[in-house]
Automatic annotation (TrEMBL):
<dbReference type="InterPro" id="IPR013766">
    <property type="entry name" value="Thioredoxin_domain"/>
</dbReference>
<feature type="signal peptide">
    <location>
        <begin position="1"/>
        <end position="18"/>
    </location>
</feature>
<dbReference type="InterPro" id="IPR036249">
    <property type="entry name" value="Thioredoxin-like_sf"/>
</dbReference>
<dbReference type="InterPro" id="IPR050553">
    <property type="entry name" value="Thioredoxin_ResA/DsbE_sf"/>
</dbReference>
<dbReference type="InterPro" id="IPR012336">
    <property type="entry name" value="Thioredoxin-like_fold"/>
</dbReference>
<feature type="domain" description="Thioredoxin">
    <location>
        <begin position="27"/>
        <end position="171"/>
    </location>
</feature>
<keyword id="KW-0732">Signal</keyword>
<dbReference type="GO" id="GO:0016853">
    <property type="term" value="F:isomerase activity"/>
</dbReference>
<protein>
    <submittedName>
        <fullName>Thiol-disulfide isomerase/thioredoxin</fullName>
    </submittedName>
</protein>
<dbReference type="Pfam" id="PF13905">
    <property type="entry name" value="Thioredoxin_8"/>
</dbReference>
<keyword id="KW-0413">Isomerase</keyword>
Length: 171
């Protein structure tokens, strides 16, 4: 009986701990999502729109991560490999650390300084993350040269659709 109860509890826990593909794969951002504020490494406020404007004309990979996320850290070498293999693509790292101190420590600890790093000071639940159905990290999105969404949902940097989307956009 105890084993059955334990299995049932593990099954229920497991159901709540996995990424679920959103039902609608969006191709554009809402105005509210674009107005979401983040902070850069210096603590200056910046919106998603300003970040995308800075990279307009380039293919961008958005990487949602945090230093406390074991899954994120496990694939970090694969993210670096994807970045190295795509020198004409801009990588933007969006941190879900719980504090500015945690953000700064993670950037230092994982050699992420001086990349395109931003932190959701508002926390996980915000207009941007709610709009893109962010339910787990790591998560990856590919944004095209016009700042529209080319690949809405990927949970691994090894997802072959990330590279094929990049290749299509760079043709």
């Amino acid at each position: 009986m105890k084993k059955l109860l334990l299995l049932l509890m593990m099954g229920m826990f497991g159901l709540g701990c996995s990424q679920e593909t959103p039902k609608v794969l969006k191709t554009a951002f809402s105005r509210e999502a674009l107005n979401q504020k983040l902070e850069d490494e210096e603590g200056k406020s910046i919106t998603i729109q300003q970040i995308l404007d800075h990279h307009k004309g380039k293919v961008v990979v958005l990487d949602f991560w945090a230093g406390w996320c074991k899954d994120c850290l496990k694939v970090l070498p694969k993210v670096e490999e994807l970045e190295k293999n795509n020198p004409n693509v801009d990588f933007v790292f969006l941190s879900l650390e719980k504090s500015k101190e945690g953000f700064d420590k993670s950037l230092e600890r994982f050699n992420m300084k001086d990349k395109n790093n931003y932190w959701f000071a508002a926390g996980w639940k915000n207009d941007f993350n709610n709009y893109i159905d962010l339910n787990w990290i790591p998560r990856y999105m590919v944004i095209d040269q016009k700042s529209t969404i080319a690949k809405y949902y990927a949970v691994s940097p090894e997802d072959p659709e990330i590279q094929s989307t990049i290749d299509q956009l760079l043709k």
